[in-house]
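## retry 2 of 3
previous attempt timed out at serialization; input unchanged, resubmitting
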Amino acid sequence: MRIGTLPWLALLCLCAALGARAEKLILNEYNAVSPANVLEGGGFDPYFGPAAVTGNGGNWFELVVVADHLDVRGWKLQICDNSVCNEQLVFSQNALWADLRAGTIITVAEDVATDVSYNPIAVGGDWWINVQASDAGPSTYITPNSFPVSNDDWQLTIRDAADVLVFGPAGEGIASNPAIGCNPPSVGVNSREVFKLETAPSALVDRCSTSYNDGTTSRFGAPNAWGGGVLVQDLSALRLGLPIPDRDTDGVADDGNRSGIAGDATCTGGATSGCDDNCPGEANSNQADSGGIAPGGANGIGDACECGDVDDDGDVDANDRAHLRAKLSAQLPNVDAPAKCGVVNDGACNVADASVTRRVNQGLPPDIAPVCPAAALPADPAALWYDPERLLEIEITMARGDWNDLRVQARDLFSVFLNQTCGDTPFPDPYTFFSAPTVLVEGQPLVDVGIRKKGFFGSLSETKPSLKLDFGEFVSGQRLEGLDRMTLNNALQDPAYVKQCLGYAIMAEAGIPAPRCNFARVTLHTTQSGTPDETPIDDLLYVNVESIKEPFLGRVFGDPSGRLYEGTLSDFWLKGTPATGEPWRGTIEPKDDPAAANKTEIDALTAALVNTTYTDAERRAAIEAVVDLDAYLTFWAGEGLIGHWDGYADDQNNFYFYVKPLEGKIHFIPWGADDTFGRGNPLSGRTGDPVHAQAIVPRAALPRRLYAIPAVRTLYLAKLQHLLDTVWNPTAHLAEIDRMQALIQPVTGDLTTALAPIRTWINDHRARVQAEIDTPTAGFAAQPDHFCFFD
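## retry succeeded, writing output
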């Protein structure tokens, strides 16, 4: 990247990105307890003993390695104490310092003997190095100098062997020095406290972090604790080592130098180790980088995705400008590599791109910035795992006994429906997590993954159970490039496999917050007494659906800090009379702690629906106070558009809803769309389908009440018409089915017969929906009875 000739706006963005420098070695803690004092308030350090021990171990400080395979030979630790900066310790050239693993704790102490038994790859792992630095000490590992540590504005600066700043100055008093000040002000430490980091160490912790604090408990050589010892630093994410995200699976990691920021040290000169993939969106295992259109050689963008290479021949030259010009003048139907075209506006091939390539070819600014999609890292790294063009390859290895226990777990019909408490509370979850020691997703390994069965009744199977994979269930912090879990549905109710992905895509196009979806071929390897079984269970096709968790909420709502609930055979209604209890709404399950503590909107919506004295205007106002009405009407119409009879409107089932923070309004989220594209109408009450005449009348309280309000009924039918006119496109939907069929049929075998009724339903559906709009039903009977057998 040639920074000197970037457009000023691109330069501004680049500088902002580089401002969050990825750290490699950070200050974690230092001891400010004076020799005559003890830790305040009875605090103590487990290593040094009870609180009565004066000095809390003397002069010492603690570092954490946050970049993997770090070489700190010759690195300098510069110490300032009470504005006097004349102490420096230097790591020696000993091989100990040549390859430090991320998550290593280094303590430097005057009075604690050196311990370099460090062996992080051993069973159990020894992740701690302590070196003694004192006037009488050896020089094997560090400068043999005594050094001060106090509560008088003590600060540490770390520099590498070339004297380049790595970290700091960090510590007390940095706000008092205008040259190095931080905002907010620095931490104050007294002579009976320690200074410590109260968050998980990472490459993104900087010297000004607000997580630095004073405290009265210390943990020499161990992760810091705070909050009365309840909260402890989690170093597992640093210490995992695997997986290294590699989204194009070319063997070169997106963050190969493990700095914490992908793309900050891209590979050049054919290097492939210890550097970041220079073309993370396209496989280029050789990392060739011969440079762009301007002179100067390697520019940090791999030849496979060099921005401006619109003829896709590996370089950027005058031919690309001519090629682009021909396309713009309609002499060519398209450029060969449109993903490399948008050199100034991220993808759109236009005259501005041609102008930039011409000027660069003449040696004039502005330069070509790496903004084209081919070279850019995704804003949402998890998007890779839901790319509809990909058939993910997943291999799971687990003990045969665990697999057999997992697959037979099931709900008990009696405990769900045939008891006096049916509906009072969310349905019990009979499934437990087992450990899969190894899981490979697209060749990327994860260890000790939590795996459990999922499903209510309709999708239960003992031979091919639906699965939840939780990467952090047993290994805290384990992620797969932005993804912490996967939901794999067995499509038991859809032998054609395509309904979920097609349905969610249509709903998303309508503006409904729907999950993303693609397919995964799963191979299961079982072991017995640690020995692999000879025959794997392979070629199992699953539908990979985005989990409704914080990442989803952040993606679709922009803020994941609201409250999330799940409805399974649930509604905003009461069994019997309002005085007899709360089943129906009692089965709504809070999915996070804030939701469990606050059901205000649930109660308010239930009250708005069950009230028998409201006028239409009063009921609508009460509903709109807690529900985003336009969003719900879109959701309701969307369920009908895909024939989602087992969703909220028709079956009071398979839905989530989210209360957005500050707004305080309910937003519905679709789920369980595996039995769709097969019912006759859009769930507003017509009985034109004799086979499903009972099912198609909406059972749910909210759509029934809304439909009974003439003004809202008009809005709903107008919404349905709008979606029919703008979203429902049988030609496109059938083409998408064709694409999915070609992708998955090598795994499933011929799907022609299974797909035939879906194709017919899609072709016939427009007429059904239009009839619904043109001659709508007038209304519905009373709310149906509760589903429980004991009312």
